[in-house]
Design goal:
Length: about 150
């Protein structure tokens, strides 16, 4: 269920893990919080193929997820772009897929502008080569989005 009010989302996810998705053109970065919303951790990368919604459902069930945070790129204050519209459409599809699998999980959008750049800077020293770094950027971007949400709400 898409939630537009931050207070409602926080209430619905109280003492529940939140998962964050950072959607790209080919990959989805995934990060997860603890039940107390104090810690955010990079989790995995999901490749956007025919099976990606099934993989999302598996993660939601396996980790007992109580809420979904979707990274939404916004260029200027309040202005959408093609990618943000695409993410809104994908989110509606995921919401429908979750409902069709008898789940009711709140979904909330959070600004993800420039998180990939921040993740690249943050991970520079974690990896031996840029190929490994680039393969992991998306999950660290998702963690930055989630961390920003947890710190600012």
């Amino acid at each position: 269920m898409l939630v537009r009010n931050i207070k409602e989302f926080k209430k619905l996810t109280y003492q529940k893990k939140i998962i964050c998705f950072d959607y790209g053109k080919k990959k989805i970065g995934v990060a997860i919080s603890d039940e107390n919303h104090k810690i955010s951790m990079p989790m995995c990368i999901i490749f956007k193929n025919k099976e990606y919604k099934k993989k999302i459902k598996e993660i939601i069930f396996s980790y007992n997820i109580g809420g979904i945070l979707m990274g939404l790129p916004i260029n200027e204050p309040g202005r959408s772009n093609k990618m943000s519209q695409s993410i809104k459409d994908i989110t509606k599809g995921i919401d429908l897929y979750i409902k069709n699998n008898n789940l009711e999980i709140p979904i909330f959008f959070w600004d993800e502008s420039f998180t990939s750049i921040e993740a690249e800077t943050k991970t520079k020293d974690l990896f031996n080569n840029t190929k490994k770094q680039k393969a992991s950027i998306d999950k660290y971007a998702a963690q930055i989005i989630l961390d920003d949400f947890l710190k600012n709400t």
